[in-house]
Amino acid sequence: MSPRRTGPSRFRARTVVPAIGVPVAIALAILVPMQANASVDLPDKTPEELVAFAKAGDVDALSGTIEQRSELGLPDLGTLMGGGASGANDSEADAAASDTLGELVSLATGSFDANVYLDSDHARLQVLDRMAERNVYLSPGEAWFVDSETQTATRLGVADDADVEGLEAELDRLADEARAEAEAGLPDGEQLPTPQQLLDRALDRLDETTAVSVGTDGRVAGRDAYELVLEPRTDETLVGEIRVAIDGENGAALAASVTARGADAPAFETGFTDVSFAAPDPAVFAFEPSDAFAVEEEALPLPTVDELRQWIADAQARAESEADATADLPRPIVHGQGWATVVELDAATVAEMTAGHRAGGGDSADADGADSVAPATEPPFAEGEALDLLGALTTPVDGGRALQTSLMSVLFTDDGRVFAGSVPVDALVAYAESGR
Amino acid sequence: MSSAEASATVGALGAGDAAASEPPVPPAVRRLRRGGMASLFASETATLFRRWRTWAMLASLGLIPILIAIAIRIAGPSGPGRGPAFLDQVAGNGLFVGMTALVVATPLFLPLTIAVVSGDAIAGEASHGTLRYLLIAPAGRLRLLAVKYAVAAVFCLAAALTVIVVGTLIGWALFPIGPVTLLSGGQIPVGEGLLRLLAIGAYVAVSMLGLSAIGLLASTLTVVPVGAMAATAILAVVAQIVGAIPQLEWVHPFLFSDRWFDFDDLLRSPPSWESFGDNALLQAAWIAVFGGLAAWRFATRDILS
Question: Which sequence ranges are marked TM in the entry (chain B) (predicted)?
Answer without folding.
Answer: 55-75, 95-117, 149-175, 195-217, 224-245, 280-299
